[in-house]
Amino acid sequence: MFLHIHKSKIHRVKVTEANLNYVGSITIDEDLMDAAFLFEGEKVQIVNNNNGERIETYIIKGERGSGMICLNGAAARKAEVGDVVIIISYALMTPEEAKAYKPVAIFPDENNRLN
User: Is residue 58 flagged as an active site residue?
Assistant: First the structure.
């Protein structure tokens, strides 16, 4: 049996851009991706603290050090620039793996930069 377990998250970052005319996804600063153990193409859930929206999409690597959090395509309709979001990833694990796993959580500053 496999369980969907919280793998990692970027907690409370601001949306810097919403690009409706793009194929889809979320673009995330590569520094944030590395710190949060996230990978390009990985499926993530995005929770918008401002309006309660929850969506799933995949990650595109953004410019390192840019602080970019950009919702693309249809996802752009679910947030406005300045909205605060939480980006969550999950992994399939056996119960034994899940008991031992410690999720990664990062808490960037108000400019989406690591402290």
Answer: yes
Catalytic residue among 25, 66, 89, 101: 25
Asked if residue 112 is part of any domain, the answer here is no
CATH number at residue 32: 2.40.40.20
Q: Is 63 contained in some domain? A: yes
Q: What is the pLDDT of residues 36-54, one digit of tens each?
A: 999 999 999 999 999 999 9
The whole-angstrom separation of Cα 69 and Cα 24 is 13
Backbone angles phi, psi at 94, to 5 degrees: -75, 160
Q: How confident is the model at residue 106 (pLDDT cuts 50, 70, 90)?
A: very high
Instruction: Tell me, yes or no, whether 114 lies in a domain.
Output: no
CA 46-44-34 angle, 5° bins: 105
Whether 25 is catalytic is yes
Q: Is residue 113 part of a domain?
A: no
Kindly state the DSSP code that residue 42 receives in the 8-state scheme.
-
- Min mean pLDDT across 21-30, 79-88, 103-112 is at 21-30
